[in-house]
User: Fold this.
Amino acid sequence: MSLNKTISLRHASASDWTPVEALLKANKLPTEGAREHLPTYLLAISNGEVVGCAGLNRDTDRPERAENALTGVRRTWRGRGIASHLKRRTLHWAALNGLEEIYTWTQAGNSPMQRLNKHLGYVTTQHSVTVSRALPLTT
Assistant:
C-alpha cells in the first residue's frame, strides 16, 4: 500500500527490529517489550528507510483488546499525515482481526498526538501519574 509516491506501508518483520528500535528511541518511546509485538507493526518506508511505525500490543489477559502502541515518525517526516495514516490502518487491521477495543496513551506534552487520537475517536478515560525514585535507598 502506498501513502504517496515516496512512502509505502508494509507490516514489519523480525529483520526490521534494528531500524524500528532506532526510530522508537529517537522519539523517546519505550522499547521494552516492543520487539515481541513487531509482527503487528505497520511501517512507513521511504527509499528503504523506516520513517514511521505504529503497532498493536494485544492484551494477554483480554485478547479482544489491544494497545495502539508506539506510533512514531521521524522528525523530518512529521506533518505529512504519516502518523494519522498509520494509526488509521492499524485500527482497520484490528477491526478486521476481531479486536473489539483499542486503547492508547500519550505523553502530556505531545499535543499533536493528543489531537490525532481525539480526531480518531479516542476518549480520555483516565489520567496517570508516573513516579520514580533514584537508587540505592539512603536512610
Q: What stands out?
A: The beta strands are 8-11, 42-46, 49-58, 65-73, 101-103. The chain has a mean pLDDT of 89. The two ends are 59 Å apart (CA to CA).
